[in-house]
Model the fold of this input.
Amino acid sequence: MSERTGVHPLLAPRGWPRVMGVLNVTPDSFSDGGRWADVDAALAHGRRLAADGADLVDVGGESTRPGARRPDVAEELDRVLPVVAGLAADGVAVSVDTMRAEVAAAAVEAGATVVNDVSGGLADPGVLDVVAGADADLVYVAMHWRAHSHEMTGFASYDGPGGVVGGVVAELGDRLAAATKAGVPEDRVVLDPGLGFAKTGEHNWDLLAALDELSALGRPLLVGASRKSFLGSLLADPDTGAPRSVGEREAANVAVSTLAAQAGAWGLRVHDVRATLDAVAVVRRWRQAAPDRA
Ligand code: PMM
Done:
């Protein structure tokens, strides 16, 4: 196990969010599925995200769109490893988006410095052991999650105290406790409300409006709106009710990023890094003009 002393550079307070560029190396992710399934195309896109200013490039080999079929481990490793290794060799900071210990371990070996586990250790608790036992000083992202994609819509009810916000705070708190129990240093954990995962659009909005309550868990927050369907519904055609297409949701996504930045989010997981950084620049400048009111 590594010596983890001091603040991790990715988690050092700086007053504005880190931007995590999404790189789904999958045939079927809802927003960019199939576009970067080929290694060279994926590497080129990852380099572009980094050149655009991404603090991290998040490489994932499993689509989590509602109803998606899981790849087997070998398939996920095949998709992810060459891309993680290629980007890391170029000096790009890479996070691996996986729920599997085997994939997390291989990706860390290949140079990933962040493990982004959308299940927060629920799908495969071995991920927590990989992070806890790694030689590298890793950051662990634990997202709120209840079930795999093919069945998650059946888990989108929050009848306990505090509704969806109370439920997510309680369950993320449990994931944080599980991570630390496994030996992951608490100060290396980032939490994520998991927009769209076992959640309706209403749930997503309630969570976004309650980021301060999630912050009370004491850990930095990552927000992943990434053109998800709740934005498509928000912008639905008033005549037909048809959701706005994925490719035409970016302006709304930038608005979410702006408000999340203002609310103090640690990180924004997005497709358009440049547009997001423009929004972050506005928030920073606005605060500079009115530091006491920010
Ligand atoms: N969303 C997706 C995949 N991975 N990871 C984190 N930490 N947070 C998210 O919200 C998240 C994620 C699915 O969205 P995509 O198809 O845009 O990748």
About this structure: The chain has a mean pLDDT of 94. The chain has one domain: 14-224+265-270. Residues 22, 24, 29-31, 60, 64, 97, 116, 118, 141, 143, 192, 194-195, 222, 224, 226, 269 surround pterin-6-yl-methyl-monophosphate (CB under 6 Å).
